[in-house]
Amino acid sequence: MNNFTFHNPTAVYFGEGTVARLGELARPYGKTALLVYGGGSIKKTGLYDQVLEQLASAGIRTVELSGIEPNPRLTTIHKGIALCRSEQVELVLAVGGGSVLDAAKAIAAGALYDGDVWDFCMQKAVIQDALPLGTILTLAATGSEMNGNAVVTNWEEKLKRAFGSKHTYPRFSILDPTLTYTVPADQTVNGVVDMMSHVFEQYFSLTPDTPLQERMCESVLQTVIENAEKALAAPDDYSARANLMWCGTMALNGGLISVGMQNDWASHGIEHEISAIYDIPHGAGLAIVFPNWMKYVCSERTDRFAQYAERVWGIERAGRTDEEMALAGIDATRAFFSRIGAPSTLADFGIGGEQLDRMAAEAVRFGPIGSFRKLEQADVKAILEMCL
Amino acid sequence: MNNFTFHNPTAVYFGEGTVARLGELARPYGKTALLVYGGGSIKKTGLYDQVLEQLASAGIRTVELSGIEPNPRLTTIHKGIALCRSEQVELVLAVGGGSVLDAAKAIAAGALYDGDVWDFCMQKAVIQDALPLGTILTLAATGSEMNGNAVVTNWEEKLKRAFGSKHTYPRFSILDPTLTYTVPADQTVNGVVDMMSHVFEQYFSLTPDTPLQERMCESVLQTVIENAEKALAAPDDYSARANLMWCGTMALNGGLISVGMQNDWASHGIEHEISAIYDIPHGAGLAIVFPNWMKYVCSERTDRFAQYAERVWGIERAGRTDEEMALAGIDATRAFFSRIGAPSTLADFGIGGEQLDRMAAEAVRFGPIGSFRKLEQADVKAILEMCL
User: Fold this and answer.
1) Could you say which of B11, B17, B219 has the minimum Cβ distance to residue A215?
2) Residues of chain A neighbouring B246 (CB-CB closer than 8 A)
């Protein structure tokens, strides 16, 4: 186990009806909130009205920024930052899924920064401060509700980049599983793939002596697998939705399940290059990439992959080598993704091989990616070819 | 899963050498620290000197309170509170195991309270504020380094009582596994039993639909079991000590592993009555009580006990009823405790049945205890009789 620092100051309010606490939670932060949301589904469900009512009851004036895109765009974030400045916003409140939350983080950090918020994504500047952020989650997926990370897309440059900071942890996050009842099946699937992928990035690690962390990772994976099909079969199954929601949070809450482990994140890097160009859903891209990444790198540590196959998928060790176990576990992953309806190839989106070189080059812009195996440009291209 | 709030603001600095960060971590809190420690073992190991040096380098004046007892006493805590007031202490720094940390929490809360700190233990008052608290942990056991709980013994009244508050979470905790190399075998064992017992109190619950939480509990238990004998065989095995230390923290860090589950805590209540009278180590008392509590209550939910036997102890289901599984799991628990050298009966401490009625009456002073099965005075007495 490596040395580590862990500090996750986000307060989580979990369960049916917890939106009713918004007023009391927001009140201490000031008089004006920027409400950040997406395409308006929160208006159909009544959540929008409830949020406005809660804020009004707390004496908070609301400024709005709607229309956050599924891969949130820098241009939209710039609008939010301008609103924060012109309206003296004191609290940013994100209501939506990971994209809305990520946009809100970029807005909160950008509002207190003199340069362009994109600098944080391009590693040209480090976040020193941010406006307080609260969130109401409507989609179980990214874990953004309990970490300081965000992903932003610069559509002009066709670049998708992440930043992370201790200043962009939400002060509070409201997680009501019933808000995910209306999430369409494909988005539920993308969320499932996303949270599983977050665990994979942490679990497949070369760091020795991390038995508790490995088991925590396996616990999240098993619970996601157990509940995904239940939620798809009955979208208003409270237990399934609640378990998925909490799994999504635990999968990436400041690294708790992998403290002291070197993480990888190469597959996320590769997927970001795909969705930066083709604007496909992040979870869908991960479903395509991850099993191929696994096949490409599993020889680095077949024992970990064999453990994965046995503990997560219940594949019997008897009569199998570690290599056979590893491949069986990877096959089980692909089979599960297909069973829940996730795509398995770029061709499923009509994407061909034209941009592979560009994507591979962009993926390693800051140097080789990953740590389980360091991937050079040629490796990334090889994995992308497996995705065709 | 029940609704829940989770908020754990403690920052953890984990790993060999992290004591060297004390100065920078303590500096923001002020000019005077109260250093709270136990019997002086920190002077033998050199930790005491390092702490003083770190505080001095940060420009912090140090006031000392040494001699905190294994079951920390109210009279000692009163001395600490008086020191905080007379010396204008701004930071309480606990260096030691759970007892030292608990005493420091009581001091930190008592220093800002006009009445007697014992009021918090007797539910006569609620903590409204506390001095900032930092900790350096030297014993893996109680989880006090990452929660707001403390246990205090009032020796005059022979009462041992707990309190918990969001104000008494440490601001920072330094966890260096090498500091536990010198922990004697019996204290290592008591720590192992204590952390396992914390998990038991959360895991044996009637709350339905908590699969991730159950697996997290099982993960901690499996990892403790796997590492306990390694640490006993080689006290300076870094990996074993590090895993035990992190398991102790995860076992009781604000309830993370059991969010949304009703907890029990009856066995802790019963043990507190034993050690309040006989001053035996808390972990030793728990080793005696817990398997007997398990036997007394397991019929409430044999499926959970059967799951425990299978997942934690690897006992095969084939050919066994849930009842047989449950009993096999309880037997495995007792066998493990005995194997690592924990006591199994009150007679091991020369304690007879003279005070059973008094202990049973005190345990239910505020009403029946526990939630897995509510225990009345007669139930507590029955369990205590099983401990003789």
Assistant:
1) B219
2) 1, 212, 259-260
Q: What's the Cα-to-Cα distance from B244 to each of A255, A317, B181, B234, B375, rounded to whole Å?
A: 19, 28, 12, 13, 31
pLDDT of B19 higher than 90? yes
Residues in contact with A320: Cβ distance below 8 Å, sequence separation at least 6, in sequence order: A306, A328
| Contacts by B352-359, CB closer than 8 A, 24 or more apart | B352/B388, B353/B384, B353/B385, B353/B388, B355/B277, B356/B381, B356/B384, B356/B385, B357/B381, B358/B277, B359/B270, B359/B273, B359/B274, B359/B277, B359/B384
pLDDT digits (tens, 9 = 90+) for B44-100: 999 999 999 999 999 999 999 999 998 899 999 999 999 999 999 999 999 999 999
Res. A158 pLDDT band, cuts 50 70 90: confident
How far apart CA B305 and CA A216 sit, in angstroms, is 21
Q: Do B3 and A10 touch (CB under 8 A)?
A: no
| Best residue in B13, B21, B176, B246 for a mutation probing chain A (most A CBs within 10 Å) | B246
CA distance A243 to chain B (A): 7
Q: Does A219 touch chain B (CB under 8 A)?
A: yes
Residues of B in contact with A247 (CB under 8 A): 212
Q: Nearest-CA distance from A167 to chain B in Å?
A: 14
As a whole number, mean pLDDT of residues A314-342 equals 97
Residue A160 has pLDDT above 90, yes or no: no
C-beta atoms of B12 and A2 within 8 A:
no
Please tell me the class of the A11-179 domain: alpha beta
Residue with the two structure tokens 């013994």? B153
pLDDT score recorded for residue A39:
86
User: Cβ contacts (< 8 Å) between B259 and chain A: which residues?
Assistant: 14, 246
Asked if B319 reaches chain A (Cβ–Cβ under 8 Å), the answer is: no
Query: What pLDDT is recorded for position B121?
Result: 94
* Dihedral pair phi/psi, residue A250, rounded to 5°: -65, -30
Q: Measured between CB atoms, which of B9, B14, B223 is closest to A4? A: B14
Chain B interface includes A179 (CB < 8 A): no
Interchain contact, A215 vs B223, CB within 8 Å: yes
- Packing angle between helix B302-313 and helix B211-233, nearest 10 degrees? 40
CATH 1.20.1090.10 intervals, chain B: 184-386
Give the ipTM. Answer: 0.97
As beta bridge partners, residue B175 has: B14, B137
* Mean of pLDDT values over A299-327: 97
Residue with the two structure tokens 């002020």: B30
* In chain A, residues 363-382 whose CB comes closer than 8 Å to chain B: none
Query: Which of the four pLDDT bands, split at 50, 70 and 90, describes residue B158?
Result: confident
Confidence grade of residue B10 (pLDDT, cut at 50, 70, 90): very high
Chain A: nearest CA to B337, how far in angstroms?
20
pLDDT of amino acid A265: 96
Domain with CATH 3.40.50.1970 in chain B: 11-179
For the stretch A188-216, pLDDT in tens is 999 999 999 999 999 999 999 999 999 99
**CA-nearest residue of chain A to B208?**
A239
The per-residue pLDDT for A212 is 98
For a pLDDT cut of 90, what percent of chain B falls above it? 97
Domain with CATH 1.20.1090.10 in chain A: 185-386
Quote the CA–CA distance of A204 and A206 in Å, as a whole number. 7
Contact B6 A17 (CB under 8 A): no
Q: Hey, what CATH class is A185-386 in?
A: mainly alpha
Chain A environment of B12 (Cβ under 8 Å) = 4-7
* B239-273: pLDDT as tens digits: 999 999 999 999 999 999 999 999 999 999 999 99
Q: Closest Cα of chain B to A346: distance in Å? A: 33
Q: CATH topology for B184-386?
A: Dehydroquinate synthase-like, alpha domain (1.20.1090)
Residue A125 to residue B323: CA distance in whole angstroms: 61
Quote the CA–CA distance of A373 and A205 in Å, as a whole number: 9
